[in-house]
Design a protein that fits this description.
Rossmann fold; 6-stranded parallel sheet; 9 helices; 44% helix; binds 2-phosphoglycolic acid; binds magnesium ion; carbohydrate metabolism; Phosphoglycolate phosphatase; metal-binding; EC 3.1.3.18
């Protein structure tokens, strides 16, 4: 089975985005008269999209419930701040551009499948000059359901014109692994991102790689191609 397409998670895989996400969370909490939380804690809350992040930051729990009016108010504030802060401090992790260049030069079709809403994903990819690498970008609100549901990964494969067994997902969290596995797509995981506070090695996958550059080298070696 030859891999033709590589799908990438965004937050914690291609880009370090927690500084901007945390700045927006803390601006929201300040305006609501609540204590700020650490950047590390925000990193734990990232993974299931913006609404989940806001709900977790407000409740202080991974599956905490929040009063509907309070949540609406918080979401509006968070959106207002993240709109301005998105991409301000975001930057690529080591080996990302090198790996993307290798894969693009070798002819792989590349896509992003993120739980970040589309309206933040596209400007962020433009600002960090990553957008030209990708044929398809699937955001957290592009499909009816987000990762860990298989829908966004299945949609990316359809858009790229590849079968699930011709695609590889590379991510940093259990949401990427579960989504890929349910879609019948192989998944490799990286250790440096955000996995909702858990060691990535507790999440089963097809391989663990240290960087996107290492992933590209491994894929090219496995396929017997060179960039
Ligand atoms: O928006 C999130 O919570 C996580 O985004 P990701 O899917 O790119 O990691
Ligand atoms: Mg991620």
């Amino acid at each position: 089975m030859a891999i033709q397409a590589v799908l990438f998670d965004l937050d914690g895989t291609l880009l370090e985005t927690v500084p901007d996400l945390a700045a927006a969370v803390n601006a929201m909490l300040r305006e609501m008269g609540r204590p700020e939380i650490s950047q590390k804690q925000v990193g734990v809350y990232v993974g299931k999209g913006a609404e989940s992040l806001v709900r977790r930051a407000l409740s202080g729990a991974m599956d905490g419930q929040v009063d509907a009016d309070l949540f609406r108010q918080a979401m509006a504030l968070w959106n207002q701040h993240y709109e301005l802060l998105n991409g301000y401090k975001a930057h690529c992790f080591d080996g990302v551009r090198e790996g993307l260049d290798m894969l693009q030069n070798a002819g792989f079709k590349l896509a992003v499948v993120t739980n970040k809403p589309e309206r933040y994903t596209l400007p962020l990819l433009k600002r960090t000059e990553l957008l030209p690498y990708f044929e398809v970008v699937v955001g957290g609100d592009t499909c009816a359901r987000k990762k860990p549901d298989p829908m966004p990964i299945e949609f990316a494969c359809q858009q790229l014109g590849v079968n699930p067994d011709e695609a590889l997902m590379i991510g940093d969290s259990v949401n990427d692994a579960l989504s890929a596995q349910a879609a019948g797509v192989s998944c490799w995981l990286l250790p440096y991102g955000y996995n909702e506070g858990n060691d990535i090695h507790s999440t089963p996958c097809d391989a663990y790689v240290q960087t996107i550059e290492e992933a590209a080298n491994l894929l090219l070696t496995e396929q017997g191609t060179t960039a």
